[in-house]
Specification:
The protein is α+β, with helices and mostly antiparallel strands. It has 6 domains: 103 residues, no CATH class; 38 residues; 104 residues, Nucleotidyltransferase, domain 5; 49 residues; 45 residues; 91 residues, no CATH class. Helix content is 44%, strand content 15%. The protein contains 21 helices and 13 strands. Strands 1, 2, 5, 6, 7 and 8 form a 6-stranded mixed beta sheet that branches. Strand 6 and strand 7 form a beta hairpin. The longest helix has 19 residues. The protein is flat, with a radius of gyration of 39 Å. The two termini are 42 Å apart. InterPro entries: HTH_IS21_transposase_type, Transpos_ISL3, Transposase_DDE, Transposase_Znf. This is Transposase. Pfam families: DDE_Tnp_ISL3, Zn_ribbon_ISL3.
Length: 531
């Protein structure tokens, strides 16, 4: 054993000074190591005065990393020293072993650092399951407390910083993430996305030279006030995304041009004479019930029963039997408040009929369209009108026209990357509409500026796009660029962008899902900055 102890000392406490192993006891489940401290003196944590006067000693039992699947417990004898400084408020103090123990700690520092690494990677619940596999079981709350107790990492002022928002609670609470674009590391998280908060953060770091951001007004204002010396760069992806949204609105506005003109028949066909139809569709519960009652009453009357006898047999009043007996057909009974009432949908039915003939058969899409026109009611009435009335109407014969989103995707895709079928469909769609042809030219011109970093051509493009009165969405997008012209020009000229920031926003979403509702701002900030 005398030869084994030095080897264990070197193996277990190679990075720790002032610890001597006295004995090792191994059982079926536990490895107990008895050790003691050997330092001659210790520094008072209150005044920093070094003392060598020993007041007493006591045992500490910190848990260590398991070995061979067995729990390791260190029985460490530490000493309590007397502070020799008269002005110090402490009379005695216990010594701590750097790298092994800390005040009130029940785990060794290496076990604590291992649990912290698990918590940063997997958070509470999943991390607790992983510690069970490591034979060092702790609760999920313990892991979260260890993460919350970590200090913030030391950071330097970045030269190029990226700014973007992330959702703490989607649609309600948003924060701001800041990333060093050059090192691709997160720097800080802010609890909101207000311009004042961002301006205060940037004002504390005057060494920032470039700020990469989207075109949100609160980020633009915060960067202008907090870092007036920095160059602001609008992100190219957001510019392209905004152009895509404007292009889709333009295509949707000219969706009538997407359907090819049907060929006119050589000889006019005679329209068949309209046949008399029931004023109420077959299958309606009121109509079917009325038809059944009418047939039953007339059958009993034809069999020789009197009207009073029929009323007794069917449980109806005599007046009801008289009204049914006078009606030669059940359709004569289709009167009342549920027949031919005026509804708020009546004003929009011509538009619904037109869209149905154009090929739009999605009731939800039709409801969204008339809702934008001012329809005040819900989706159910549109669904009922489509299923009961429009489903039976014939649609134009021919191929279904492409959707506005599909045509927009074709326009936004590089021509060399389009499949042959999509290229032919796009050519046919543009041939019927000069406005969409102009839109495609403007989009491709903007794409050349984005890919080739030709920001000097932006004023010329804005002037050309603003002159397209037939494409109001594109005109509005071009005029909106003038409000942030310097940042947009820099974004289309310099190689910097916010792509790395978007990656960290997605990472924050993953961390929030891992934490199962425990992703408060402080805890989430620790994981983002330290993981």
């Amino acid at each position: 054993m005398n030869e084994v102890l030095p080897q264990l000392d070197e193996l277990l406490f190679s990075s720790v000074e002032g610890v001597l192993i006295e004995s090792v006891e191994v059982t079926d489940t536990v490895v107990r190591v008895e050790a003691r401290t050997t330092a001659g003196r210790a520094a008072c944590p209150e005044c920093g005065y070094w003392s060598g006067r020993i007041h007493g000693s006591y045992l500490r039992f910190p848990r260590d990393l398991p070995t061979a699947g067995k729990l390791v417990v260190v029985s460490l004898r530490v000493r309590r020293f007397v502070c020799a400084e008269d002005s110090c408020t402490r009379k005695t103090f216990a010594e701590q072993v750097p790298g092994l123990t800390r005040r009130f700690g029940r785990r060794t520092e290496r076990l604590r650092s291992t649990l912290v690494s698990v918590g940063l990677a997997l958070a509470g619940r999943a991390g607790a399951l992983m510690t069970d596999a490591f034979k060092i079981p702790v609760s999920r709350n313990t892991l979260l407390r260890l993460i919350a107790s970590l200090p913030d990492p030391a950071t330097t002022t970045p030269r190029v910083v990226g700014v973007d928002e992330y959702a703490q609670r989607k649609g309600r609470i948003y924060g701001t993430v800041l990333v060093d674009v050059e090192t691709r590391r997160p720097i800080d998280l802010l609890p909101d996305r207000e311009a004042d908060t961002l301006a205060a953060w940037l004002a504390e770091r005057p060494g920032i030279e470039i700020v990469c951001r989207d075109r949100a007004p609160f980020f633009a204002e915060g960067a202008t006030r907090g870092a007036p010396q920095a160059l602001q760069v609008a992100d190219r992806w957001h510019l392209w995304h905004n152009l895509g949204e404007a292009a889709e609105k333009c295509v949707y506005r000219h969706r009538g041009c997407l359907r090819p003109t049907p060929a006119q028949p050589e000889e006019p066909q005679e329209e068949p004479e309209p046949t008399a139809s029931s004023p109420w569709p077959t299958g309606h519960r009121f109509a079917e019930r009325t038809r059944a009652k009418h047939a039953t009453i007339h059958a009993l009357l034809a069999a020789g029963h009197s009207k009073r006898s029929v009323a007794r047999q069917l449980g109806m009043t005599l007046n009801t039997i008289l009204r049914f007996s006078r009606a030669t057909t059940p359709e004569e009974m289709f009167t009342g408040q549920w027949q031919s009432r005026a509804t708020r949908l009546d004003d929009y039915k011509p538009y619904l009929d037109q869209r149905w003939q154009e090929g739009c058969t999605n009731a939800w899409k039709l409801w969204e369209e008339i809702k934008e026109q001012g329809y005040p009611r819900g989706y159910a009435s549109v669904r009922d009108y489509v299923s009961r009335t429009l489903r039976g109407k014939p649609q134009p014969v021919g191929p279904r026209p492409p959707s506005a989103r599909a045509v927009t995707r074709w326009i936004l895709t590089h021509p060399d990357a389009l499949p042959e079928g999509d290229r032919l469909h796009l050519k046919a769609a543009l041939a019927n509409c000069p406005e969409l042809t102009a839109l495609a030219e403007h989009v491709r011109s903007f794409a050349h500026m984005v890919t080739d970093l030709q920001g000097d051509r932006l004023p010329e493009w804005i002037e050309a796009a603003s002159a397209t009165a037939e494409l109001p969405s594109l005109c509005h997008f071009a005029q909106h660029l003038l409000r942030d012209l310097d940042a947009v020009t820099a974004g289309l000229t310099l190689p910097w962008n916010s792509g790395v920031v978007e990656g960290h926003v997605n990472r924050i979403k993953m961390l929030k899902r891992q934490m199962f509702g425990r992703a408060g701002f402080e805890l989430l900030r620790k994981r983002v900055l330290l993981a």
